[in-house]
Amino acid sequence: MSRGLWFAAGAGAGIYAMVRGRRAAEVLTYDGLHDRLGALAVGARLFRDEVAQGRAEAEDAVRARLGASSPPQISSPPDTPELAHRQQRGTP
Q: For the region Disordered, what residue ranges are annotated (predicted)?
């Protein structure tokens, strides 16, 4: 019985090592590395989106706590001097 147990243990260890070796070899191929880098890019993008969402939620919470309703609107400077002159006079 002991020999059969050791035979089964050895066969299982051999199969396990073979499967792990194939996986390691697949990771080191061009396609494997491409997949890993693609997954890293997707993970970084998801992390960036989660951080942005958390920041927006925290900003909303702070605004609610302070009683501010909306973020201040920043007006951009006019593109042309003529447009700036019209805006100063109040003509369209």
A: 63-92
